[in-house]
Each structure stands twice: as C-alpha cells, then as structure tokens.
Amino acid sequence: MAALNSIAIETVPTEVGAASLAAPTAAYLHIPFCRRRCFYCDFPISVVGDRPPVGDHFGTIAEYVELLCQEIQAVPLGQADAALQTVFFGGGTPSLLTVEQFEQIMAALRSRFELAAAAEISIEIDPNSFDQARLSGYLAAGVNRVSLGVQAFQTELLSACGRTHSRSDVDAAIEMIRQVGLTNFSLDLISGLPHQTMAQWQESLDIAISLAPMHLSVYDLTVEPGTSFDRWYEAGMQPLPTESTTAAMYRQAQQTLTQAGYQHYELSNYARPGFECRHNRTYWENRSYYGFGMGAASYWNDQRFTRPRKRRDYYQWVQEFQQTGQIDCSITPVAERLLDRLMLGLRLSEGLSLIALRAEFGNAAILRVLDCLEPHRQRGWVEQDDGRGIRLTDPEGFLYSNVVLSDLFKVLS
C-alpha cells in the first residue's frame, strides 16, 4: 500500500472556509442548572439543590431564562438569515426547566430565526428530573429528540460518580419516553467509572440495547482538573480501572453495539441508520453554529467565541451585548483552522476529504499532515481511500486518537 505522502491529490474548486463563513443553521442553548454537581463534571453549571419548585428556585432559573432570551433577541440584523436546522438544549440539566420556561426560550428563537419545518430539536434530560406531563409539554413545544443521561445501570456506580438518580429512576424515565410516543431517543453511558468491572460494562451495554434507543453515546471517563474525582483519584490508580481495562471496554462497546446493528459513526457515538445526531455533526464537520447561554461557544466567520462561565459574569456580558451588538473576537489563524478541521473531522467514521483540505489549505500543508500521519498508518490506526480521504480505523484508530491528534498538534502548532 502506498505511503500517505506519496498520494496525488486532485484539486477541486471550493470557497476557502466556506463551511464556517456560511450563516449558522444550528443553535445550542446552555441550561446550566443541576441539583448537584457530579463528581466528574467540569461544565459551567449552577447547583440549585433539591428544593421545589424545580423550575423556579427563588427566581434563579426564571432570571436566567429571561437573560438567555435577551441574548437571543440581541443577535444583530443580517446575522440571522438562514433557517435553523437543529436546536440543542444542553447543560446542566435542561429538564429542570418548566414547560413554560422552555416555551419562552422557543418563542424567543422563533421570533429571531426561521425554524426549518424538519428541524431536529433535542433536549438533554436526566432521570428523576421530569415527569410525563413535563416531557409531553416539551414535545408539544417542538422537541422531537431527547438524550437521556443514564451513565450506568448499576445504582452503586451511579452513587460512586455523584448522580442523583437510581436504576429505578432510569426505568421510570424510559417508560415515560415510551408513553409519550417518542422513538427518537438517545442514551448516554460512561465507561471507566470507579470500581466498574468489565462484567458491569457488558451488562450496561446489553441493557441499553434491550431498551432499543435510536442512538447511544459512549464516553470514557476523563478525570478533569478541579473536579471531585481529580481531588480523590489519580488517573490509572485504584479504584479507577486501568488504562488497559478502559481500552478493553472501548473495544467491547464497539463490538457489542455494531453487532447489534448500531453504526459507529463518530468516536463516541453510535446510531441506527438515519438517526445520527444532526446537531453534533455540525461541530464535527466544522460548520458554523450559534451558542447561547453561560459558557456557550459560537463559531462563525472563522471566529470562535465562548461566553463567561460564571452566571453573574454572563449576565453582565449579555447587558453589554445588548448595547453594542458586538462580540470581541479575532479571526482564527489558518494553521489553527486546519488543526480544528483535523481534530474534529477525524472523529467521524468517514474521516476527511483530502481534496477539500488541499483546496482550502494548500498542498504543502497537507503533505505535512500526511507525513505526520504516515507512522500511524503503518500501525494500522489511519487508513486512506484511494488518495481522496483519510480516516481513523475502528476501533484501534479511534482508541488511540489522542496519540494521533497530539502528533498533529505538534506539527501544526
């Protein structure tokens, strides 16, 4: 087989940076509230505790929703000229919103943007954070896809990572999803949890398959700085599974889920045919998107911008944004843009088009990329497609993607 850097790459006409220059057709809404912070979480959230009413908490959530809607309304004219194809409510725990608060945000979106008739509207929900009436209300307001944060099916593992729900709560949540007639739902699972065994991981995979979700997200635990796990554990030390065990868990998930008919379309994601998460593909394909809310990121005109991660700082930022309509950010340098494209696109099973990369970034830059990837091709982690595309192999290339991407970062930084 030819080495990667010996391949002739054709040139096709394309507009440089066209994907990021086009008006965004995706919007992410960050709902930062959680009853408590999970031990592995480093997301920008606000803990509101368990006191009812869930959607109010002395006005904290209501105040945030009002500011979020004001940010949406402040998007300058001329920047909202493409219909939104996807909307994603993430968090945090968006299912802590009352139906009325969710409707308020959707009304703000519809007043500012055109919403495509077939738009994918997703919301993350946690077991024990909603009831059937609330879920029905979300669907009536436009939701057509939910992502249920299960993480594990063993109550002892859920407790070990600080989750507020139990296995019985998961079963109740699944039953409510079925009762409202929603078939397009996703389940989140985490491998590498403290004390987690291979047998427990296989059990979680088998149970997940039996519930027949259209989509599964399977994440390997990462011990993030500043989290409870970071204070308690050292990566690779007990009670966390060893690196070889977590690698075996990744291979086990790939084999189990693909044999069950799920397509491994992205490093951490599996779907039935036709049920890939359209919103998240926006990120992996490096296309433009809006972000709204505390800590949310936007990408447009080759510019990335992240809002303040603390609630009061975000409130002040919204007030300033309302007055100026301007976001202080700079154009992403070409080398950084290429690195972004590689780090995101190589997460997808189809990989990246060498033709498009060469057209945008030039032959010299892509030859450097191919030269960097050649040792990984020889290891069986990278493969080529008749000189037109590059991708990571499944599962080994995906499993060692951090090694591949780290080498690319060294070469392109």
Automatic annotation (TrEMBL):
Gene Ontology MF, one: coproporphyrinogen oxidase activity
Cellular component, GO annotation: cytoplasm
SMART domains: Elp3 (SM00729)
Cell location: Cytoplasm
Any single biological process term in GO: porphyrin-containing compound biosynthetic process
Domain Radical SAM core: 19-263
Pfam families: HemN_C, Radical_SAM
PROSITE patterns on file: RADICAL_SAM
Keyword Cell inner membrane belongs to the record: no
Listed Gene3D superfamilies: 3.30.750.200
Keywords noted in UniProt: 4Fe-4S, Chaperone, Cytoplasm, Heme, Iron, Iron-sulfur, Metal-binding, S-adenosyl-L-methionine
Family under the similarity heading: Belongs to the anaerobic coproporphyrinogen-III oxidase family. HemW subfamily.
Described function: Probably acts as a heme chaperone, transferring heme to an unknown acceptor. Binds one molecule of heme per monomer, possibly covalently. Binds 1 [4Fe-4S] cluster. The cluster is coordinated with 3 cysteines and an exchangeable S-adenosyl-L-methionine.
Protein's name in the database: Heme chaperone HemW
Gene coding for it: hemW
